[in-house]
Amino acid sequence: MTFTKITEQSSKYEHLEKMSVHDLLTNINQEDKTVPFAVEKAIPQVEALVAQIVTKLKLGGRLFYIGAGTSGRLAIVDASECPPTFGVPFDLVNGIIAGGDKAIRQAVENAEDNPKQAWIDLQAHNITENDVVIGIAASGTTPYVIGGLERCNENNIITGCITCNAESPLSQTAQFPIEVVVGPEFITGSSRMKAGTAQKLVLNMISTTAMIQLGKVKGNKMVDMQLSNSKLVDRGVKMIMSEIPVSYEQATELLHTYGSVRKAIENHNI
């Protein structure tokens, strides 16, 4: 089967250094507009993986993302935002980046080239067959990610992936591949651009849909969100007011008493 690394193909734009600021911004935006359409084509693949994730999470399993570079950083962003947004335990959704925490802010040389390290990193979290592991790599060729999924497959752990090349080695390794083919980047090979945007969109879809399926949203509101600052407290008070007939002051007291929007509403209705 032929594998073409579209993410590395030459940009359709030439002489970028000669473009005006306006032209640079306009052309980048033109390319960015194509990303949601590429994601749309992959929705059936996303749906298949999310169904597996929801099943495992409902049984007490966890979700892991593994990636290197931009892909790993996007994984960590998505995972770290689940607890404050949905009030879930910090270890329910986990982002692991090749090279460890240092790699979040700066490149760690050769970290992505070790095919054995991801499994070691996953074992540090006591990974089991109750969990789901998603490998993220724009190219679909990152040894760290592929090696991690191979070991997961050997240990009966459900695997998925997010990549931006069709029929890549990563796609062929994952049990539930997601391929969002966004085409060549504005700057040749700079997969932090369209590919990174596509990965972020898919991660948003996966985690948000899974959390809704787990009952972490009521109506369209984040009723289990962590009340970590005054803005979120105010938002929580207004959520309560939209659900039950109380004043701002009464809603504030309920929120402080019960500690979450959900509990405040449920206990008021008892």
Question: What would you say this structure looks like, in words?
Answer:
This protein is of the alpha/beta class and 270 residues long. The chain contains 11 helices and 5 strands; from the N terminus they run H-H-H-E-H-E-H-E-H-E-H-E-H-H-H-H. It has a 5-stranded parallel sheet with strand order 2-1-3-4-5, sandwiched between helices. Helix 2 crosses helix 8 and helix 9 packs parallel to helix 11. It starts with 20 loop residues before the first helix and ends with a helix. The relative contact order is 0.15.
Give the tags.
globular, 270 residues, alpha/beta, 11 helices
Helix count, DSSP H or I runs of 4 or more residues: 11
The major sheet is characterized as: 5 strands, parallel
Proportion of beta-strand residues: 5-15%
Strand order of the largest sheet: 2-1-3-4-5
Radius of gyration: 21 Å
Helix-residue proportion: 40-55%
Q: For the terminal residues, how far apart are their CA atoms?
A: 61 Å
Number of strands: 5
Shape label = globular
Order of helices and strands: HHHEHEHEHEHEHHHH
Structural class of the helices, strands and pairings? alpha/beta
What integer is the average pLDDT? 95
